């Protein structure tokens, strides 16, 4: 298929682009480089500089490149930032996705794979989380993603859209032989921050809260390797030839505490660094783990990276080879 990868210069989009190319698809990366990196776009793909707000350009690209399917990774992802700038988040995450869906609808392209998030569940009452749990986001980021899911749901009912909403847990690690990793500025994700401490780029790693009701008092998250995440997208894309609406959680099912992640980075890197215990971060649920049985059964998907040490090793290789990120 000819696949338009919106946000294909970002962390998840670039890994997806590489995997599409490796599996015989032609990937067209559409990105405004506001967050992404041109160096992350694999040479097999064609890069198109463009903004999702530009409806006319989207229509032109979909027509000229004979696009068959669209994958959308071009969202803002910072929970804290979304609380400070709800309008900005709704604008980029919702309005621009609406624009993209309009352009697809105008051109008669009906296959859409959407990056959703575990943040749609808010503070769930049960873990591991199954897809049917209530969607009660507690911040504008989660709400903006949930609003897109609802828009896709209603559009799919017209018979003009086949979509997959994939709710990610904690994507991490680096793909394509550890060449495509995380490079967010500013960085807020746990594993790259710990690696920065291991590389001596920050004075310590702060643990946000040590009084949670978990085995060591720190939050538990479900860390899923980027290649496992992307392989589920590929399977979902294939399903869209026959299915109009598919929704899956994507996680490993294994939860690790913040302390366990820190210890794993210390072991993999062979470095020691300062760990500081601080107050809880607002809005952090104690435990977020996925029940991915639905994706495993219905897509035939099986995560390959089940060991945290192996996952962290790929991130460590990426960051230690490029301590200042792509442009550094
Ligand atoms: N944490 C620390 N110290 C830090 C950074 C994070 O203790 O310096 C803790 C957090 O409190 C949390 C865990 O490490 O308990 C993971 O935090 P991340 O910021 O790496 O990830 P989140 O679980 O907060 O969020 C991630 C994505 C979101 C997505 C969410 C869905 O970043 O985009 O998963 O579960 F919505």
TrEMBL record:
GO terms for biological process: galactose catabolic process via UDP-galactose, Leloir pathway. Its cofactor is NAD(+). Residues 3-251 form the NAD-dependent epimerase/dehydratase domain. Keywords: Carbohydrate metabolism, Isomerase, NAD. The keyword Mitochondrion does not apply. SUPFAM superfamilies: NAD(P)-binding Rossmann-fold domains. It comes from the Bacteria. It is an enzyme of class 5 (isomerase). It catalyses: UDP-alpha-D-glucose = UDP-alpha-D-galactose. It holds the Pfam family Epimerase. Its EC number is 5.1.3.2. GO terms for molecular function: UDP-glucose 4-epimerase activity. The keyword Aminoacyl-tRNA synthetase does not apply. Pathway: Carbohydrate metabolism; galactose metabolism. Homodimer. Belongs to the NAD(P)-dependent epimerase/dehydratase family. NCBIfam families: galE. This is UDP-glucose 4-epimerase.
């Amino acid at each position: 298929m000819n696949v338009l990868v919106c946000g294909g210069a970002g962390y998840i989009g670039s890994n997806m682009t590489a995997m599409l190319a490796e599996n015989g698809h032609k990937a067209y990366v559409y990105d405004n480089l506001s967050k992404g990196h041109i160096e992350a776009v694999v040479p097999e793909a064609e890069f198109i500089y463009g903004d999702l707000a530009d409806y006319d350009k989207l229509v032109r690209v979909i027509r000229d490149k004979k696009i068959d399917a669209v994958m959308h990774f071009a969202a803002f992802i910072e929970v804290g930032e979304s609380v400070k700038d709800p309008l900005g988040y709704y604008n980029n995450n919702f309005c621009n996705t609406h624009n993209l869906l309009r352009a697809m609808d105008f051109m008669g392209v009906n296959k859409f794979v959407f990056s959703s998030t575990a943040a749609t569940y808010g503070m769930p009452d049960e873990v591991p989380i199954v897809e049917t749990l209530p969607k009660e986001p507690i911040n504008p980021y989660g709400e903006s993603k949930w609003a897109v899911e609802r828009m896709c749901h209603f559009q799919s009912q017209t018979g003009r859209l086949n979509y997959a909403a994939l709710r990610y847990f904690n994507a991490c690690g680096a793909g394509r032989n550890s060449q495509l990793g995380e490079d967010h500025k500013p960085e807020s994700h746990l594993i790259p921050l710990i690696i920065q401490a291991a590389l001596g780029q920050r004075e310590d790693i702060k643990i946000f809260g040590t009084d949670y009701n978990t085995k060591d008092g720190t939050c538990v998250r479900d860390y899923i390797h980027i290649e496992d995440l992307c392989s589920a997208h590929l399977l979902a894309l294939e399903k869209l030839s026959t299915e109009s609406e598919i929704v899956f959680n994507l996680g490993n099912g294994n939860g690790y505490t913040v302390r366990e992640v820190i210890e794993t980075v210390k072991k993999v890197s062979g470095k020691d660094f300062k760990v500081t215990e601080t107050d809880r971060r607002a809005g952090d649920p104690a435990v977020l783990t996925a029940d991915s049985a639905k994706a495993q059964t219905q897509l035939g998907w099986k995560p390959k990276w089940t060991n945290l040490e192996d996952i962290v090793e790929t991130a460590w290789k990426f960051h230690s080879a490029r301590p200042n990120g792509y442009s550094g």
